[in-house]
Every structure is written in C-alpha cells, then in structure tokens.
Amino acid sequence: MIRRLPPAVVNQIAAGEVVERPVSVVKELLENALDAGALRIRVEVDGGGAERIAVIDDGDGFLPEDLPLAFASHATSKLQTVADLDHIGSLGFRGEALASIGAISRALVRSRRRGAEAGWEVRCEGGVETAPQPCGAPEGTRLEVRDLFYNVPARRRFLKSAGAERARIQELVAELSLARLDVDVTLVADGRELLRLPAGDSLPARFARCFGVELQHGLLPVSRTFAGLTVAGFVAEPDLARRDGKLELMFVNGRRARESSALYAIRQAFREYLMGGRFPVYVLQVNLPADQVDANVHPRKAEVRFVEARRVAGCLHETVRAALQARGAAADAAAGGVVIDARLPRARSGFPDRSRDLFGPPPAAAPAPPPREAAVAGVRESRGPGEPGEAAVRPNPFQRVSGRFLQVLDLYLLLEGPDGLLVVDQHALHERVVYERLRRRHAGRPVQVQRLLVPAVVEVSPTELAWIEAASAELAEQGLLVEPFGPAAVAVQGVPAVLAKVDGKRLLRDLLATGNEDGGTAVQDRIAERFHAMACRAAVMSGDRLGEAEIEALLQEAATLEHPHNCPHGRPTVLTFGTAELERYFRRRC
Amino acid sequence: MKILCDRNALQEAVTVVSSVVPVKTTKPILQNLLVRADTEGITLFATDLEMAARVQLDAVKVSKKGSVLLPARETAALLRELSDPTVTLESSDQRCRIESGGGSFVLLGESPEEYPEESQNKSGKRIEIPAGRMLRMIQETIFAAAREETRYAINGVLLDCAGGCLRLVATDGRRLAISYENIDSKVEFKVVVPLRALNTMVRALPEDGKEALQLEVGDKQIVFKIGSTQLQSQLLETRFPDYEGVLPKSADTTVEVQKAVLESALRRAAILAPNDMRMVRFEAGDNQLRLTAESTARGRADVAVDAVIKGAGGGINFNPDYILEALRVCKLDDVRLDMSDDSMPAKFTLGESFTYVVMPISGA
Predict the structure, then answer these.
(1) At A452, is the secondary structure helix, strand, or coil?
(2) Which of A232, A372, A408, B316 has its CA 20 to 30 A from that of A506?
(3) Do B154 and B219 have their domain in common?
(4) Rounded average pLDDT over B230-247
(5) Closest Cα to residue A54, out of A39, A38, A43, A70?
(6) Which residue did the predictor score with more confidence, A17 or B125?
C-alpha cells in the first residue's frame, strides 16, 4: 500500500541531502546571514558542531510575521516565481535549509528586525516548532542548532572526530569569507577563536589569514573583463602548489562553486608550470549575468553550470595563462630579486628553517577585489592577451647575474646575482631554453597537416561526438581533420604534421580523455607535450661538463626567457640563497 | 641422446632457430631450443608461442636417440667459437655435454617434456614462389607498415592472393606500399602476417634465391617452408584497410626522374627540413623537379633536377623520410611520380611490380 509520507519524514529525508554533516549546517546558516545583508557574522561551534552551532549576524532579521514559516519547507523570502530561478542573486533560494536543519536537531531562531522594538524567538525540535515568543534580542538574527542528528542515529555514527569536523568548518568559513571582504567574520570553536577576519581586508591578506601567512608572498593579482564576464582575484606562484586541490577556489557571482570545465581549463593553464601531482592555488571570482549560470544543479549548491561553459573556461584559461606569463615580463627594480628567495619554499632551501619572518619584503599588495555587487563595475579594463599584466612580481633572475660562475657536480651552475647566490640545474634550464625555441619556431609558421591515406576510424559515444562536432573547426585550425563517419564514429583524415608520427586514433582518444572543452587548446597542449619530450632529449644532461662559453651562452639565452623559473615539466631551474639568508647562516646577522 | 655432426651445419641451423627465441620472456623455458634426434637425423625447434622455427639436419650421425633442451643464446655463441669441423653432443638427464676441439662444455637445459609442443599444421592453402622474389617483395613493403602497437590492422603486411597474383601490401595510414608477383595457382587467401615473422624471414631468406619457398596458409597461421627449414607464425586477426580504394586513378601531373638523382637531391633538401616538421616541397614544371625545404632556425634548401614533366605541373609537400625509405629499396633506374593536389594521394612507380602511394602534407 502506498502512503503519502508525513511532512516530518519528508523533511528528514530531504535533510539527508542538504545536511550531510555539521559543516553543511554552517554553510546554510552562513549563507542565510549573508543573504540577510549582515556585515558582521560570528560563528560558534562546540564539539565539532555536533553539540552546538550558532551563527549570529547583524543582518535584516526576520519579519515577526515570517517567523512561523521559518522552519517550514520550501518557504523562503528569496524567491517567488519560477522565473526568479533564472536570475538568482542570493546564495540560498530553495527554502529547504532551515526546514531540513529543524527536522534533525534542536534549533532556535532569535531575531529582531532592523529598527523593530523587540525580538522574537521560535524553537524547533525534530521538525516540530513552537509558536513565536517575544524576547529581548539585538538587531539581526541568532540561529542556534544543538544536538545535530539526535534523532538520526545513523548519520551521527558517520560523523568524524570533533577535530575533523571542526577543521572542515574552519575551511568552509574561510572559503566563504573570501567572497565577502566587506563582512567581518569570526569563528570560535569550543571557546577558542580560530578565525578573526576584519572587514576591509585585501583578498591576499584575508587569504593569508585563513590559509597561512607563507601564502601571501607570490600571489599574482588578476583582473580581466570580457564581454559579459569579469574575472578577478589572484593565482599563486606555481611554487606554492599543493598536493591537493583544496585551495583551488572559484566563486561564481559570489557563490563558492565548482564547474568541471572551468576547473580543467585553469589547471591546463598551470600545467607547464607544475610538476605532476601538484595542484595550483588560486582564488578567482567570476561574475556574469545571473541568467548565464544555473546554480540549481546540486542539493548543496556545490556545483554550478554555465550556459556558455566553453567560453567561460576559455576566459579563465586566458586570464590565468596571461598572469603566469606576465610574471617575469618586466623586472621591476623595486620588486627586487629577493622576492624570489622569499617565495622559495623553505623545505627546498639548504639551510635550517629558522627566522622565517625575517625573509622577504612585505607581501606585494594586491588590489582587493571589490565586494560582490561592485565587482563588475570595479575591475579595470581588459587587456589583449599577451600584454604584460600588472603582476610583474617575478623578475628573470638571469638578467642580473654577474659574469662569474662555476659548474659543480657536472650538473649545477653557481652564479652570483645581485641579491645572493643562485644555484641552477643546467639540464632543467637548458630544457626550458630549448622548449621555448621550439615553441617560438612553431608559432611562427603556418599549421601543416599530414593527411591520412587510410583514415583512422574512431568509435565515439554520443557526447564525444557532440564535442567533436562542436570543436571540429578549432581542431582543423590546429591541423587535426576529423569528419563524421556514420552515427557513432568519426574518421581522422589528417593530423598536425608536427605530430606526424602520432597515431591519429590515439591522438583523438587522448583529446577526448582530457575532457577539455576547447578543442584548439587541447591540440596545442598535445603539441606542447611533444616539444617537452624533444626538449628533454636535446638538453644537456646531468654529467655533461660545460665549457665557459657554453655556460655563458645558456645564461644569455635564459635571460631572454619569459618564464625561466621552471623546466617544461614544472621542476624548478634555479634556487636562490639570498644575501640575508647567507649572512644569518654564518651568524653575521641575527 | 648422442650425436656427431658437422659444426657449420649445426651452427647455421641453431642461428635460424634461435631467431624466434625471445630475448625477454616471463617463461624462461622459452629461452631454450629443442634438439630431437631420431633415425632420420636431428630436428631443431624453437618457439615463442607466436612464432616457431624448425630445421632438419640429415648430415648427422645419431648414435643414441632422444631429445634435449639447450639454452639458445649460449649454444649459438659456443658453436660460433668452436674450431673443429665436427662436434659431439651427448645428453643425460637435463645436461648436455658438447665435445669439440677447444674444450668440453656442459650446458644445463630443462626438461624437454615441458617445452611447448610443436603445433601440427593442418593442411592449408599452398602456393610456391621463388625465395629471392619473396625476399624482394617483403623488402619493398615492410618499411611502410605501422610500427605502433595500437594502429589497428596495419601492424603487419597483407598477403593477398587472388587471380593468379600474390600481392604484399603494407601501410601506416600515411603511405602504402604494394608489391606483387604472378604465380601459377588458383588459390585465394587474404591474411595479415606480423612484422616480426617477416623480419625473421628477411634474415633467413637467401638473396636472389632461386629455390622455391612454399607458403601454407591456414585459418590462424601461416607456414613458410624452404628446404629443410620452416617458419610458422600466427596470423593477425584484423581487417586490413581497403587498399585498392586508396590507389589514385588519375593524376594532373606526371614526373619521370632518375632514381639516383632524385634520391640524392631529396637527401640534400631533407637536411634542412626541421626534425619537428619533416616537410619538403616538390614542384614540377619546365622539365625540372624542384625540391625545397626550409627550417626557420637553420636555413633553406633549393635543389632542382632534370625530369620529364607531363601534365599541369604544380607543387606538393611530402615528408621526405617517407620517400627516402621507399627509394632505398627501389631498384629501378627511372622512377615515376603521379601527383595531383595536396589533398590527393600521390603515386610513385618504383618497380615493375612495386607501387608506392603517399599522402601529402597540406596547410590547415
């Protein structure tokens, strides 16, 4: 017999989707506070959030007449019609959060409308709410959730240790705070203040407060305007890359969100600067008209979709690429070579890790992206690709070395720079030099196609076929000729002549496997890979003894490179031991 | 087992059989070769499970029948170094004692019973062809086959026998080589033979040999027999592309040029084709074939050679390596090139029965 489930059960089931663990509650409450226009938010958690979560804001507060509906499901003030879903400006919109939370905890709302005489409070326990009671309260809303999952023992068992849940909450609060630098955010756990983020911080400053001071050096600010789209924020120097993707932070119209093609595009832009298994660090705020984004694709709103996913991905790729390429472009004397030293991870330096605070100048001040509403208007005019960006934080160290050098261990070159000792890996540096030469040469000649006598027929899925059809013009521009071949296959008719030895079928399969939205970039990446391999073979090896003239020639060419800091595989080419570091090591200075 | 035999004959037989012994294998027993002695002589046999080679030797005195497994590499090396005209092999258990002038050696083998059985070839379709002719046909095609493992059917050479003609065809998708020979037989088959088997054949077949080579083609395997030697190989179970479809039917321009002149001119021009973009331009006109290549980093080559040009004339780009590889096995004095535009395959006539088709390089 089929029965309609009672609302309490429905809400408990729905709660399972929205509220997975304490951090989900914090996310919903924090977003509600931001939507209410709060400028000061305090988050308190006890016992990893399972015992108690409180979010206290100074926002608009509830209208007293709305309070009875606070815990009702699909009740919201943020949305009225289906049409509103197309241009969601608020973080929340489904009206599910409080209903879900109320269903699986003992919750309390105490709120005073801005300008109202008194506050009101409503309690809700396991989905059963009380009538609103008047009470004393400051302006704004206090939402308190106790005994999360007290009536869902299965969920409770899946909670991690209080420490682990607390760490997740801290990450989340930090992430969300980056989208709203105008809001003062505090996180207190078990009476201890974990985050104290004053309003008006610059983005790098807040990022550093949240994720560690060492990160504030080497953030390259970016700010670009495309038609109907702006990108602002920063990308971190490749040196700061991590072993996980936790600091790949994208915000779409102020909402922390993931989108697979954008993620891929950004990683591709970083690719030649990073070693395998490393993930970039960045905070990018993407703003575009609300009708270009679908935020309503994931119960916890963790993912979004773009109407023009490929274009957005392309803009992000270009923005990041330009920022990374610009970094060595113009060596600003004021920035000084020491900046490089400071950013080299301490673990790679040969000296004991002490006195880190003494290193490096204060962080390069990056313009803080304006808050959400102002973001679109606030960014500077876009620049064409290839022009140097504002982030000239990383000069080419080879432009300022003295003529003295020494080859040691048949692999390393020791050089004197204006700010200290440079240790160069000759193979890595030469590899970069050869790679750039190949790329320059390739860029300067027309694309040639090796046509195939016997087309390579590749069977493809419908989605793959759709991708190929959409990308076929771009692929052809890069020299890969693909034509439809029946309903579920394509025929490769020609491959880029520069990849002539590569099997056409495998080439196309590789491109499909990368999931890259942009066909032209995908082919170019594949060509770059071939250049990596050629450069690696052509470069002088470890063990090759170099003559003086050879070393001079290598350094001279390195001085002309745009990014000499890494080999094409992402390994560093040069380590710098700053004067100050050397002096401290020899106790000439304390 | 105990035998006395001619060292030279044994060494040659061991060399042929050893050619199928795998250098690396996860089954160490395959690095041996089997020697079996009976009243008629001895048989040497080796296999890597895909290919097998067998040689029979009659000029042997068998004083005790039996069989033994010998480590292939060491046996071959040892026979090369021995100086006496004869050699004695005597085995007991899994040891084999080799006596000859220059010393006495004991080789440790494994149990012959554990060595893979020689599979009996069921009677297949048979044809005969002079061994030297077959060698040429293999040489004229094998270079054009795909070397990569993934490339579908074309990782071998097609043997297409129909209408009294045996054709060998190889392609890597960018160029295609065909060589054929008329034979006196109505047999029909179409099989793809792995490159490795043909490479072994190239080493085993005598140049200009007039002896008959016998091909026995079954469902899954092919056997090549010449004299007392036979080589057996699994066939590739793949569909070979329709090669007749890609042969150009007509051409806008025909170029006739001396092979030696073209080859040396192309070698010179190709020096300046950069190694990341191998490309030489062929331009036909005014009874000249002009070859140009350019490397932005290294310079430019411009070579003109006399040629007989018929038709419209025009230019077309090729990967020079593809052409040079074919010219290397061409024995003709004058070669002919039929070409159209850069989207159409071009055809080289490199022998009376040797045709080579290459796809040009074009702008994107």
Answers:
(1) strand
(2) B316
(3) yes
(4) 89
(5) A43
(6) B125
Interface of A with B in 439-458 (CB under 8 A): 441-442, 444-456
* Residue at B120 is within a domain: no
Cα angle: B91, vertex B49, B232; to 5 degrees: 90
Choose the weakest-confidence range: A356-360, A501-505, B152-156: A356-360
Encode A296-328: b = buried (16+ Cβ within 10 Å), e = exposed: eeebebeebbbeebbbbbbbbbbbbbbbbbbbb
User: Is residue B151, in this structure, part of any structural domain at all?
Assistant: yes
Asked whether the beta carbons of A477 and A518 are under 8 A apart, the reply is no
Cα A32 from Cα B261, distance rounded (Å): 83
CATH class of A204-325: alpha beta
DSSP string, B2-59: EEEEEHHHHHHHHHHHHTTS-SS-S-GGGGEEEEEEETTEEEEEEE-SSEEEEEEE-S
Question: What is the distance in angstroms between the Cα of B247 and the nearest Cα belonging to chain A?
Answer: 9
Q: Is A244 exposed, middle or buried (0-12, 13-18, 19+ CB in 10 A)?
A: exposed
- Tokens found for residue A541: 């090896």
- Rg of chain B (C-alpha set): 25
What residue ranges in A273-369 does DSSP mark as E strands?
282-287, 293-294, 305-306
Give the three-state DSSP class for A22: helix
Give strand pairing partners of B84: none
pLDDT digit string, tens, across residues A326-384: 775 433 333 333 333 333 333 333 333 333 333 333 433 444 444 433 333 333 333 33
DSSP designation for A365: P
Choosing from B114, B143, B159, the residue where a domain stops is B114
Q: Say if residue B82 is in the same domain as residue B167.
A: no
Length reported for chain B = 364
Q: Flag whether residue B246 sits within 8 Å of chain A, measured between CB atoms.
A: yes
- Nearest chain A Cα distance for residue B315, angstroms: 15
User: Has residue B146 got a pLDDT over 50?
Assistant: yes
Does the distance separating the beta carbons of A498 and B277 come in below 8 Å? yes
Where in chain A is CATH 3.30.1370.100? 350-590
| β-sheet bridge partners, residue A219 | A236
**What b/e readout covers B246-262, taking b as 16+ CB neighbours within 10 angstroms?**
beeeebbbbbebbbebb
Contact across the interface for A451 and B359, Cβ inside 8 Å: yes
> How far from the centroid of its chain's Cα atoms is residue A535's Cα?
30
Q: Is B170 on the interface with A (CB under 8 A)?
A: no
User: Which among B173, B359, B361 has CB closest to A456?
Assistant: B173
- The domain A7-198 is placed in CATH, from the list 3.40.50.80, 3.30.43.10, 3.30.565.10, 3.60.40.10, at 3.30.565.10
With b for 16 or more beta-carbon neighbours within 10 A and e for fewer, the B313-346 pattern comes to bbbbbbbbbbbbebbebbeeeebbbbbbebebbb
The predicted-structure confidence for A216-254, as pLDDT tens digits, reads as follows 777 888 999 988 899 999 998 887 888 888 889 999 988
CB atoms A451 and B278 under 8 Å:
no
The tokens describing B147, both together, are 């070397």
Give the closest residue to B362 by CA, choosing from B340, B343, B339, B338.
Answer: B343
Global ipTM: 0.81
**CATH number of the structural domain spanning residue B88:** 3.10.150.10
- Residue in chain A closest to B319 (alpha carbons) equals A450
Q: How many CB atoms lie within 10 A of CB B237?
A: 10
Chain B residues in contact with A437 by the CB 8 A cut-off are 297
Query: Residue A332: what residue type?
Result: D
> A534 contacts in B (CB within 8 Å)?
275-276
Mutate to test the interface with A, among B298, B300, B356, B361 (most CBs of A within 10 A): B361
Q: Mark which residues 459-478 of A lie under 8 Å from B by CB.
A: 476-478
